[in-house]
Amino acid sequence: MTHTCAELFQGMECTIIGNGDEEVTGLSFRSDAVEPGDMFFCIVGNVVDGHSFAQDAIDRGATSLVVQRKVYLADATDVAEVVVADSRKAMAHAAVSFYDHPSADFSLVGITGTNGKTTTTYLVEHIASVAGNRCGVIGTVGNKIAGRMEHSEHTTPESPDLQKLFARMRDAGCTVVAMEVSSHALDLQRTWGTDFAVTAFTNLTQDHLDYHHTFDDYFEAKALLFSRAYPARRVINIDSSWGRELLRRATEAGDEVITTGFASMAQIHPVDIAYEATRTRVTLEVRGAKVDVVYPLVGRFNVENVMTAFGCALALGIPTDVIVDALATMPAVPGRLEQVDAGVDAPVTVYVDYAHTPDALTKAIASIQELSGGRTIVVFGCGGNRDAGKRPIMGAAALAADFAVVTSDNPRHEDPQAIIDDIVAGMDADGAFIVEPDRRAAIAAAIAEARPGDAILLAGKGHEDYQLVGDAVLDFDDRKVAAEELVRAFGETETN
After folding, report:
1. Residue positions of the PTM N6-carboxylysine (predicted)?
2. By Cβ atoms counted within 10 A, which residue in 68, 113, 369, 370 is the most buried?
């Protein structure tokens, strides 16, 4: 697959210095990954300026550069330079062209919001599959192409990786793709030039303020997915003021909108809800009609996710009866209120959830309390080198449980005890909690604390099977460790 410099930037304002007919055989934004014939994008980051690596890229075989300013290099007279105003947007534009605009060949559902993105994408994928579509998923847990799971580095990949992934999904015959769209990705132009059939908003709560700095900036990053840059049918949860503001803007723009929420004004809202240990029964009002839905997911927050997915499916043209039938067979989502099965007759129940924001933790605890007749015990921490402002808020939120164990999550390059101290600063000194920095020991302590009938929530890591400590990536899966500790506490695994 080759294109010329001029072809890749057709329709974009730029200045090409040198040979615009230079063939480009690949795209790269890391100089150490450059292959001969690649176009190298000099990305200006918060810490590193890619212009500093232009010579290295040329030395490795790059035949063209995309720059925001002219660079002066030795022995590079045959290297074409494309001068642009924004190298990130230019990279996204070029990637779309390089892979022949793949998102135009299927129905792409983009889901943004602080919480619920992963579950909602999995719900959309399942509903669309039952409706007869070949599907793809892009998100936090991984990427899935026609049922085949792959590891992912980012919730939303960088634009060349994203468009390459879209091309693979197109070539695999996917007709519907459900994608988590992060605020970082929108702000950094990773999705620029992508065609969406549907865009959906779940909620907005505190997270990533180390990057966005203010809630308003965080919201405006999310709101980009509902701007004129991304025309689509909209599905918006209007339970919050943020959602209602998005609705106002979408209505003003003349967009087709399906609203969801617990409020009766939403086009999709619950009339009656019955929470059970392994499933939920909901009567939804869907555009004025009553619809009975039963699905094997638990918790109030999953009602929100189901409503958003229902709206997305309707926006895709999937009939209501097909949606209802699909929801009844929805498989579990990895690390989302996932019950641990240790193979022993344990008198306590352990759930694992990705809840890593104050709102998500609050909702997860409330969901466990609705399911359990006993006490609720939560084990949680906060990630290092991430929004420190939410740590004391997480601590306060955890006190909604009957007992809490504060521990390490992914400390990265921060001192685990310093992170814990930040968390504990938000907790009442008389609150029912202990501190145990070692996460395995913390899980064991929670199991030891539990009484028959109690439920334990392991929050923060969900599907992750690792722990990041300094530069080390350690093997650690909450589900696996909890199962081992349940066996240790209550007996050996049963065998036939």
Report:
1. 222
2. 113
pLDDT band of residue 495 (cuts 50, 70, 90) is very low
Question: Do 40 and 29 form a contact (C-beta atoms < 8 A)?
Answer: yes
Give yes or no for residue 173 having a pLDDT over 60: yes
CB 102 within 8 A of CB 169: yes
- Residue 411 marked ligand-binding: yes
The predicted model scores a pTM of: 0.86
Confirm or deny that 113 is annotated as ligand binding. Answer: yes
- DSSP classification of residue 369: H
Under 8 Å between Cβ of 81 and 167: no
Annotated binding residue 115: yes
CA 190 to mean position of chain CA atoms:
14
What would the two tokens of residue 367 be? 């969901």
Q: Is position 460 annotated in a ligand binding site?
A: yes
Residue 492 has pLDDT above 60, yes or no: yes
The residue-averaged pLDDT of 368-386 equals: 92
On whether 461 is known to bind a ligand per the annotation, the reply is no
205 appears as a binding residue in the annotation: no
∠ CA 102-104-109, nearest 5°, is: 100
Residue 173 φ then ψ, to 5°: 85, 15
The reply, when asked if residue 114 is annotated as ligand binding, is yes
pLDDT in tens, 22-37: 899 999 999 999 999 9
485 is in an annotated binding site: no
Of residues 60, 51, 63, the one with CA closest to residue 3? 63
Write the DSSP symbol of residue 342: -
Q: Give yes or no for a contact between 239 and 419, defined as CB atoms under 8 angstroms apart.
A: no
Strands 338-339 and 349-353, bridge-based pairing: antiparallel
Annotated ligand binding at 194? The verdict is no
Is 220 exposed, middle or buried (CB count within 10 Å of its CB: 0-12, 13-18, 19+)?
Answer: middle
Amino acid making up residue 219: F
**Has 116 been labeled as part of a binding site?**
yes
Whether 389 has a binding-site annotation, put simply, is no
Is 305 labelled a binding residue? no
SS (H, E, C) 386-417: CCHHHHHHHHHHHCCCCEEEECCCCCECCCHH
pLDDT tens, residue by residue, 241-285? 999 999 999 999 999 999 999 999 999 999 999 998 889 999 999
Q: Cβ contacts of residue 489 below 8 Å, gap of 6+?
A: 346, 444, 447, 448
Location of structure tokens 């619920």? 116
In 60-208, alpha helices (H): 87-98, 117-130, 159-171, 183-187
Per the CB < 8 A criterion, the answer to whether 156 and 351 are in contact is: no
> What structural domains and CATH numbers belong to the chain?
3-98 (3.40.1390.10), 102-328 (3.40.1190.10), 338-490 (3.90.190.20)
> Would residue 213 be called left, alpha or beta, if left means φ above 0 and alpha means ψ between -120 and 50 degrees?
left
The candidate with the shortest Cα–Cα distance to 482, out of 339, 363, 292, is: 339
Task: Yes or no: say if 411 and 383 are a contact pair by the CB < 8 Å rule.
Answer: yes
DSSP classification of residue 333: P
For the cut 70, the answer to whether the pLDDT of residue 166 exceeds it is: yes
Tokens of 119: 């579950």
